[in-house]
Structure formats: structure tokens, C-alpha cells
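Build the 3D complex.
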Amino acid sequence: MKLKNFSSHSLAALCLLCLAACGSQEPRSVLNQPASAVDLSGFWELNYSQSDNIQARLNTLVRELRKRSGPPSGPYQQPGVIVSGPGGTNSGASIIGLAQMADLITQSQLLEVEQDKHSIKVKRELDFALTCEFYMGEYQTVETPLGKEICGWSGHQLIFKTLLPEGLIIQHVLTVGPDRQWLNVATTVTSDRVTSPFTVNRVYQRYQPQDNGYTCKMTISRGRVCTTEAQ
Amino acid sequence: MRRIRACLLQGGLFAWLLGPGALMGAELPTEVDPAAGVIPVGAVTLQVEQAPREQEMLDVGLAIFDPGIPADPSTHSRQGIFPEIRKAEAQYIPVLLRNALQNSNAWGVVRVLPDKQAAAELLITGRILQSDGRRLLLRVQAVDATGRVWLDRSYLDEATEDDYPVGPARDPYGDIYRQIANDLLAARRQLDARQLPAIRQVALMRYAASLSEDAFGSYLQRDPQGLYSVVRLPAEGDPMMGRVERIRNQEHLFVDTVDEQYVNLYEEMAPTYNLWRQYGREQAIYQQEYEAQAQTRERYGRRGSFTAMEQTYNMYKQIKIQEQDLDEMAQGFNNEVVPTVMEANGKVFRLSGTLETQYNEWRGILRDIFVLETGLPAGT
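Done.
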């Protein structure tokens, strides 16, 4: 699936959701979640060929900012500012920093999604898990001194938004493809030092982890306990 | 534990998608302080019985605490309750209280029970009202076998900076356990020399009646206040009572077996749990001082630079990872379903499920054995 076609596929997913009410099993709804919520559970691995290239996205952002700011200011251009913005924003370091941040927080190559009728947990390799609890028609907000998280379903899309100190905002929008074999994670990083957000799409495809012949679970007294018994 | 404020926002559209400011002023529900009106125990020295008399040393049953998790899961985040960690605390706290009771040298066997045991000589139950890195608030009740209430009150302890990091064999809320132990000892000292043996007799006869109401119910009476007393006793050497005591010993054997598991859980959990509480306290204080700190905090880069944003993100990431590790660790408590193998009446029984389930299963087996042996109808 080409990334540029993803939105049309998403639309198809939405249509399928409508059809789901008529008896189709996929994508299936989950109790306690909005009717449009879909099942994202499973194992996902990054597909590089379908995902955005950070450098290309950065070039696009710079072009957009230049287009918005109008003609160059010539000899009066401030040092280090590649695109002028209000209040000393849009410096080269800030724009590149935004792209680097997007790269940093989208580095997970593997995702594991656990979902039940009350909650979802998106475990990300090399990063913390995104978690959300669902209650009928409500969005969850959790606030800590170091940040504020908001999450919930917007139609068939699952959205996590984190507001961090110093004007840094990170948003992940998870959309599953119509055949539930693809998962798009659109990550948008916003800084109050750059007038446009930076969005990176990472496309994941479903995979089945290798069967090791054993299953493990966490215990306190014995750590991780593994068994060859069938579960 | 982290101080969380959460709100559930009604609405059909994600207004907050439009911009960061959209929800910044959202009103959050007002929280009621569960510790309002409860005076902290302060610094407490454990009172130790110097020369205890054997007949005064009641056995104590300490049931796993009620974790105090609201039934409505949507309130958990708002109240700062992590259900898995709270369930673990409900098993952790009784072990600490048991240690304090044992150190007071005033009691017989102190057992942590997977479930309430009505016929315990002295049964202690509790409910966790608040537990985080700064405060521990418990509701504790102690009732003896006759039904007399020894204590029924809330206890509050507050941790200070000196309580962290937690040293070996210490607990930030050690004072609360010492205070409960002292109060129980004071309550016991108010009873006269005849009342304590009477409690033991009632406990045994209530246990016997639970096995067979028909055979033993008439040995007991209840007064209008609901207090039990023994009206007569079986003859010395009564074989039926011998069976009762044997069955009770088998039940105690099970409790002693699972008790070892509780101690193991406590020892394994303590280091990480103490870090969790320390972190929780620091985070709560950080929240209070956040604005002041933000003004003076050393930053590694200019605002908006990759270095500064990376620092901000990594701080958040570290806290989230630690929080999720602890949550997973707490989940591990629920996976502690070590099958217990018990032997009774020449047969070996393999029990499985949670400790509470195993305990009730074992009690059922013992009652069946008693009924088979005696031919008496089962107790209620």
C-alpha cells in the first residue's frame, strides 16, 4: 500500500466499519469503546519502503515555511534563520531539531498492541508504551508534572497527544488499513519555536512473532517464568 | 506514587486536535482528601512485652487487606490508584504489620491469611484508603473470636525526606505498624486474666461449629450484642474435638505454607516498591515546586533546539518507563499462582488458582474429610 494512498484506504476502512454492522467480522468493534473503534491488537513491524523519509519531509517543511513567509528578506535576514517567523521562530536549528525529534520518537521498529474492552497498550520497541483507557464517548486526560496526555478514539483512529514542557507537543494517530494488515502511525511534533508542525508517517505491517515453543509471564517472586505448556 | 489529575472529557469532536491550548484550561474534578481529620501517628516506638505469659498470647489472623479500589475504573487515574500495584500493596502491608506484631513479643502465632477466618482468636482486617510515596492511610479493625471489637479506626502516616532512600529492613511507614501494634497491645492489657483464655475457647468452639453446627453449635451462645461465649465444653479427651483440632491444624499448615509465599513476595517486591514510592514522593513534591524549578532548571540547549527537546522528552520517557515497569511488576503479583501441594488423610491434593482460591478449596476439602470421618452434617 502506497503511503500517499493511505487516506483513501482509511476511507475504505471507514466504509468497512459501516458494513461491519451488517455482519462483517473485520474490523470488529470492541466493547466499551465507540462503535467505530477497531481492533489494533497484534504484532507490527516497520515497513521502511512504505514509511516517510525524514529528509524528504524536512525539505517539504522548509518549502512550506518559505512559501508562507513570502520573498526572502535579503541582507536583513537574521543569522541562522532560514525562514523568518514571528518572535524569532523558524531558525534552522529549530526546524532541523524538530525533524530530529520526529526521527527520535518514531524509531521503534516493532510494536505490540494489547487491547481489551477497557484499554489499549501500544508497546513500542526502545520507547515507553502508549496506553489509554476507554469509557463510553469520553477521552482520557492524565496530567503529571512532566506532561499531559490525552487519548481516545476519533472515529476509527486512535489518537495519543502528549503536551510536554517548553512548548513541545507530540501526537500519534494510529489508523489501521481496511484489511487490518497495515497500521499507519502518523506522528506530529510541534514546537513553539517553529510555526509549522512536523509530521512523519510510519507504516507497520502485521507479523507473527516466531514461536519459540514456550510462553512467559511476569511474576514477582520468580521473575519471568516461562513454560512449555500449551496456553 | 505520582500525583495524577485526570479528566474525562465529553464530546463528539476532538477539539484538542486543533491546537495545544484548546484543553489547557479544562476544569478538573475536585478531589476529596481521604485523610481529612485523621491525625498522623508521628514517630512511634514499639512497645515490647518483656515477660509475656503463655496463656495471654493469643494467635492472630491477619487477613489480606482490602485494596480499596473503587469499582468504577474511570475514577482510578483521577485518584492516583494503580489497581495492580494496589492489589500488591494489599498483600505487602499485612506482612509488615505481622512483623511489628511479632517484634512486640506479645502474641502467639501471627499468620497472614489469604481470606478472613471468622474463628481466629484475634482477626485483623484492613482497607487501604490511600497509599503513595507521601502518605499511607489505613482503616484497621481488630475483632476477637467472641466478637469484641478491639479497635476500629483510621491510621495515617506521612513519609519525610529522611525516610528515603529506604534502608534494609526499614519502611517509610514503619511508625503506622508500630502504632497499630501498640494499640492492640493496649487493648489486650485491658482484658483480665479470665477473658483471654475464654477467647481461645470460643475460637476453638466456633471453628468446631463451622465444621458441624449440629454437633458443636450448642456449646456456644450469643448475647443480644452479638458476642459469643462458651456455655459448656466437651469432655477432656473427646475424640470429636481431637478431630476438630487436627482439621484446624491442617488448615494452619496450609496458611503457614502460603505465608512463606507472602514473605517471598514481600522480600522480592520491597526494593522496587520502595523506589516506586520514593519516586512518587519526589514527583509529588516536584509538582508543587515545578514552577519554581522551571525558572532555575539547568537546560542543555536553547528552547526549541534538538538538545533541549530531547532532554524534555527523555525526562518524560524515563518516568513513563519506570512507571510501566512497576505496573508490570505489580501485574506479576497476580501471576503468583504457585500450585500448592498438601497432604491430608493420606491423600495428596494439588491446589491451584489464587491463594484465596486455594485457601477456600483447602478448607472445603478439610470439611469434606471431617464430614466423612464423623458422619455428621456439614457446618454452615
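The first strand of chain B starts at residue 5 and ends at 10.
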